[in-house]
Queue: 2 jobs
Job 1
Amino acid sequence: MIDGGPETNPPAPQPEDTSIFYDGQSNRRHQVQLGLTDRLEISENGTTLATWPFKDIRRADGATGILRLSCLTAPSLARLEVRDAMLAAALSSRCSQLSDHAAGGQDVAAIVGWSLAATISIVAVIWFGLPFAADRLAPLVPDTLERRIGNAAERQIGVIFGGKTCGNASGRTAFSKLMTAISQAAGIDTPVRADVLDTPVPNAFALPGGKVYLFSGLLAKAENPDEIAGVLAHELGHVSHRDNTRNMIYSGGTSFLIGLLFGDVTGAGALVFASRSLITASYTREAEQGADDFAIQVMHRLGRPTKAMGDLIFRITGNQGDNALSILSNHPLTEDRLKHLSDEDRPASGPPLLTDQEWTALKALCK
Amino acid sequence: MLELVTFGFYRFWLATDIRRHLWSHTSIDGDAPEYTGRARELLIGFLFALAILVPIYLAYFLIGIEAERAKAFASLPLFLFFYLFGHFAIYRARRYRLTRTVWRGVRFWMDGSGWAYAAWAAGWSLLTMLTLGLALPWRQAALERYKMRHCHYGDLQGSFEGRGWEFFKRGWWLWLLAVVPLTLLLVVMVRNWPAQIKIPPYVALPVLLLAPFLYGAFKAIEWRWWISGIRFGEVSFESDLSKSALYGLYWKVIGWSLPLLILLMVYIYLCSTLLVQMGLAPFAVFSTNGKFSGSVAMLVLGGAGYLAFLLAMTVVVRVYLLRDVWARAAASTTVFRLEAAANVAAKGELVSALGEGLADGLDIVGF
């Protein structure tokens, strides 16, 4: 006996059909007798089919009440099934490493622990590492690639909005006058491409590569040129900070890392989407504040009030206060931004950006 | 019992444990099959799959941009590639699971080409879409024939005898009940676009109440048809799963999701009340005290609650739709002429878990 288990007597005579052996070569059932000497002897009608050293015997998954065994030194699929509880106990007591490969309680704790550690480190990378990486990498993305992505998005926008850019001549002249004034004040030498889209949604955005879109819905809500100028300057801020590219790197990276956790590299699943929007919300907020600062500088240089833009945003988002979904929106915390814009407000020192006539023409651009 | 919580990389261990549990609690002629796959294999398979998927995604991104530049939404056909890739992954994942399934000391295995299967599946899916689902029975039959023809138990070859016509005869009324009204509704909606359509509650409520019954009946019919079509050599299977056998399970899932959803809402309500009492504004888009820490706290708390809800839902789905459906289907099954499988010689090699990794990385399931 190898481990000197409690069993000292030879096992009781075995009832029929209690031990079945499969040799791993075929699925033929062998009804076998077991001899427990210094090793396990498996024999059928007096012929020894196999001998297994006790220390190599391992437990395999089986139905409850049946001890199913395999052996490291036997063919990998050879199995012995012991159905008699007494015999199973006698055999188990001799096999010192019966459950060696199976994950016991301690192993499960280790796996859960490491899994948690991996989760925490991934979240840490998303929280601290990715914003840093996005800031460093975005300037390295060549302009040509940015413009290509922008062109692709432009075509999609053309299809979605039916290519309805607005354009009566006097309105366009006013719009480009406004745009030129802002981009000169912003110190952008290359001409900025901008368009007004005919859609009731009050919004504006910039594409990668620098094209700025203004929606006629925003024009309709605006009450003076300074409000629109502030918004356009804000979008130019996104362009000059390359927020689109940074955001692409950042959200691509987050999707990928969260996908690692939940098993979905595409980042399309609901779980990934939910956790991602939560995490990226704070990142987008920083970008918005950066663009606001940019707009403030531009408006100062133009000698125009900064508060106007805040008024416009408040006019649009003010009544969304109770909307729970707004915690995930890209332009959150208007109150905070509005305060910032009001704090920086200075009395107008420069000439108006548009004459009354031009302003009327701009307002009528899409009518 | 099943571990209830899955998170991060522990999912590989969980999936393995679930399979070991399911396999060892199923009995074929008194003997339980054994699942010999190990979680470490899944982890390695996932890492390998990442090495393949990451370059593919980058290429997809770049090609997509070029295609979009040429024409808006021209990159949509690229999805077809991922559809094919998904079916390839499903085939290979099934192959992995099958080679880890052992019964009476002999393993199952699978040959055939994952790409051929993917092309076959894509063709049939297209036909199914064009016929509004009418071709589904023939699609399933064709795909099962391909899969089962390449399945083996030792030197016993599998086949599939189920006919699409049989499936169609049993399920056509479901198609009439489900697909026809849905199509009509869609047609009406497209006609009236973009005017919004309100679906009156006396239409929506019966539809919602009916849906679990329809889907339950469909799944039961499909299971029964599938099991009864399986052959291994001379061995055949027969299932008497009744149409109503799965209704209860779908209602249990609904019965669990509603309280969980209510719990989530209560939790969010409590969190926001708590924050309000602490003097913070949880949904501060615009408020008077100028602090936004309340919003951030709400974001984190709400996000954690939502994640917990999603995880709890996966547990519910696992218990009822995975374990219980399997148990009922297995219990309804009788095996005939098993003596034909009394002396099967072992054959077939183990394959890697790469397919499982790809399926995990693409977030798809199937078998």
Job 2
Amino acid sequence: MARPENKLAFDDGWQYAPAPESTDHIRIDKKYGLFIGGDFVAPDKGKYFDTINPATEQHLSRIALASEGDVDKAVKAARKAYRAWSRLKPANRGKYIYRIARIIQERAREFAAIESLDGGKPIRESRDVDIPLSAAHFFYYAGWADKLEYAFPGRRAKSLGVAGQVIPWNFPLLMAAWKIAPALACGNTVVLKPAETTPLTALKLAEVIADAGLPPGVVNIVTGAGETGAAVVTHPGVDKVAFTGSTEIGRVIQKALAGTDKKYTLELGGKAANIIFADAAIDQAVEGIVNGIFFNQGHVCCAGSRLLVQESVAEEVVQKLRDRMETLIVGDPLDKNTDIGAINSAQQLEKIEAYLAIGQEEGARMHQSSCAVPDKGYWCRPTIFTDVSQSNRVVQEEIFGPVLAIQTFRTFSEAMTKANNTPYGLSGGVWTDKGAKIFKMTRGIRAGVIWANTFNKFDPTSPFGGYKESGMGREGGLHGLDAYLKLEA
Amino acid sequence: MSLAAVKNASRLPDLSRVARVDEVGVDERVARFQTRSIKKASKIEALKLILSMIDLTTLEGQDTPGKVRQLCQKAIHLHDEIPGLPHVAAVCVYPTMVGVAREALKGRDIRIASVATAFPSGMAPLSVKLEETRLAVSEGADEIDMVISRGAFLAGDYRKVFDEIGTIKQACGGVHLKVILETGELGTLDRVRRASVLAMHAGADFIKTSTGKIQPAATMQVTLVMLQAIRDYFYETGRMVGMKPAGGISNAKLAVHYLVMLRETLGSAWMTPEWFRFGASSLANDVLMQIRKQMTGIYQSADYFSMD
């Protein structure tokens, strides 16, 4: 049995010197227009908004605010391009998408640095996860372009038309890739709206798309906030809506689409349970907890934000987790050694801090790592709540930050009940040394993705999506094609 | 059985309760340590720390007093051209060479480690192992590096392995005991973890990966599992146990990764030669070369560093 008085020390002795990624090689324009019909054009009302670096609060660029009229132009451009694009020889569509993938790879360093500057995520993640996975998605769906008849044997796969896509700020380029790649492979054209706090890599992607020689109007990118997104979703010329974001907005979209014949996929919130059994490889499970909740500052819809740990090992797990949290480096997102970067926006930080207060009011015990955080910018120390129960708001509601609620369970069925007892059902994790237990648990949890003895693993070949309030439809893999096709007998 | 042995026997840990190890997860964690970027002042500090943690080793059938004396000179004078360098922690030799090393290191703050217990195979009766240990201690060894009986361990005779370590520990008296698990012969990380627990409960002051005679020798994966076992033992008992990866760590970059792993697993208290050693014969020169590079910006050829 571990004794709490036997403490490890991580704050003194040898420290790592700063190792910042250089930003000399990147170019960010002072001002960005809207990417419509193959060109960057000024917004019709001449309005712009700022995008800032959340780690320093420094201004990065001015971004065009697309009005309803601009969105209409974008949809018309997409409609105009659709005729030729959908009739293009499928292998040629594939060729264009492969080109996009290759250019992203070639410019990976630039994309990684900009993603970290604009969104606050550590360069280690944008470099090792976001950008390579974005390229992988384009590569994967490029391969499908001329094989759609094999994907759905016995049925004819036809494109839908114009896809209106609205994406979140947590994985800006990756979400753009998730949306654009399958849409194009299936012969659709696109109007994409990036999140207002992280528009830069989508605009850089517009440059890539132009460089790849895609016909004008096949991909259009309109920047703006909620109103612009609403204009994209509700535009009568849009045949298919794809949205990733909060459950709250997802509901609004679903209402708006009711009664229309638009096809849609919604990828919404989550409150995933990461379940640790006593017979798990505990040290590796602790890594899985860290990866599950602190990856991308916890701004992950499938984050393992609830820990369910078997009571007999709970103390040990919490002690190890607390020590592990002390070794997490919080700070400059561009430093190669940073594990946890900046919270994406002031608004999100406010929301997280409100939940920290709620958790404590509800009687949970809060523990944060002892690290210092910079004065400027938006920061939240890695946080865990113990002594929480199923009825607490920090257990039920999505916080979308580096905040973990830790509950204990005694039996297998109790774990399963608690795991399912939430309005969400996006992901889950199971940690045990017993194969049979893995299968039994993964069959019983209603969630779109369940990881066993690992967490937050993504691959373009694997479908992703939610049950219940976590959304509908699947993205990625073969299933991801279905969302962009009309299948006829 | 002596009274002490009886006392020991009652402390055989329940190995069925030892934490399980997931190899895929271990690989991932190790990869994370390797992405740490160590530059500038923190790199120089790390390189100097590594030098001070080296057990400079010669364990060959062809070892002679001459060879051992030269090794001891290297231990004292790593590279006098660069002022302010530390000396290594220890030299590691066979028991018959302990006397020679003692003489060569007289008045120096460098410890003498001797392998014992029928190194490297451990295939000898306990009486022979004890005799060898006593000889090494009486010749003046400060530290004994023993091997466990891997055959007994693999056959499930944990009691025998446990008692053997306990008995050798007694024969060491106050001399530090390092217990070599020879992880390359244990086969799985689960067994490495169990053997670590067994050795620590039996009284090991240090646990050590390998003899250097079997491949694979030290790997970061194996070392991580042993460090985690040390941490859990510390959580339980409050007693610190040292760690020595040995064999296969021949360049500075890899050694820095080990330090990163040590720092993020056990913390600052273990970041000294008292609690962490590198068993290596050729690591020192690569570290020296890197220090030189950090100071001047230029790599010097191997010919500028003494090879003893």
